[in-house]
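**User:** Everyone, produce a chain:

**Assistant:**
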Amino acid sequence: MIKQILVATLLIASGVQAADPAPLKLDGLLQDVRQFSAEDRQLNKQREQLFSNDLSQQQQLLNKSRQRLQQAEREQARLKAAFDANDTKLAEMQTLIQQRSGQLGEVFGVAKEQAGELRSFLRDSLTGADNPGRSETLAFADSNRVPTLNELKNLWYQLQLEMTETGKISRFDSPVIANDGSTATQPVVRFGMFAAATEQGQFLGWDATEQALTVLPTQPEDASQQVEEYLQGSANDITIDPTRGQLFQMLDREPTVLERIQQGGKVGYLILALGAIGLLVALVQIAMMLINDFRVRKQLASPDSLTRDNPLGRVLLAVKEQSLTADQREVKVDEAILQEMPLFERGQSFVRLLSAVAPLLGLLGTVTGMIATFQSITLFGTSDPKLMAGGISQALMTTVLGLVVAIPLLFCHSYLASRSRRLMQILQERGLGLLVDAERKAKVGGVTRHAA
């Protein structure tokens, strides 16, 4: 509509007749313009009314904020005045306390200091298991007031009680926290301030946070037997911790054999696998060597009955079963001995190889562990030794594993080599003896024929 009005106005102003077959009349155009002006004035009035209402609301909010600010300022002034008055009153009361205490002020200070030290000591003391709540009776150590006579007597009493309990062996029932987190009341024996154990033989530790006894995750060796024998009166000795639980806690930090092997990483597992293979081969060969040694001894005990179930019998039968000359016998003996030699030396070279490779693999693990350590130092620095412990553990454990594998394999190889040499020596001696006997018989036969 507005577009049509503008177009008609432009046509009239330029003196050009509109092309529309129904020309726009000037009266209608004027009436439309007046109507549009009235609507615009009405819309502007509505907008002005809204702006006026918003301004009124903003003014009301501003007034409320100013009132709250004034109230807060008055409250601040009141609190400041109260604080100043309390500060002045506190200074006056402290001065009055100092005046009234006189020379006893230093005594009270020392008493509070001792009460604070004893309070922290009692929280960590094992004697709190059968004497709970003692540290709460020394709460005056944290206050600014003068301790009462009863509080000073209680300080002396707690000191005396602690000294007495540290030298006693006490039996009592107490809640015990198991390793799975469950709590149960059990009969407990406390050995001074150094150790505590259940009647079932489990040594206990003291949890200062929970103020309760807990079962040690790792028990000392023969702990159960020690406690049972002591409670039955059959033994007078029992394991205690002179460091008040620190040594017992270190038992849990000591890694087991499996954990130490895991520290070696993949190289450690490879060393153990090769060691197991080498040890298995060595044991099988040692068993075969012992069996052959037993059979050879049995053959030596009965030289007239030769059998093929032993190396010596096979060597002797290889010569006796054939009619040979002296040279042929010597060659045949050497050949039979050489055929038996692989049986004796089987697996020795493999065991010797593994005994040499194991330390080299340990050295390889050492190098890789040190590389990991230096990488940790490069990334995190040397501020935290725990970050370097993994690489160092791998470096050391692989070396240990390599030596642990190599040493038994060397002994096995030495034993196999000595046994095989001994058996070969027996075969050579018996073979040489057989040749000498054959030559002697041949000479005797020749002399007999010549004399005939």
Q: What stands out?
A: Residues 68 and 74 are 10 Å apart (CA to CA). The chain has twelve helices and five strands.
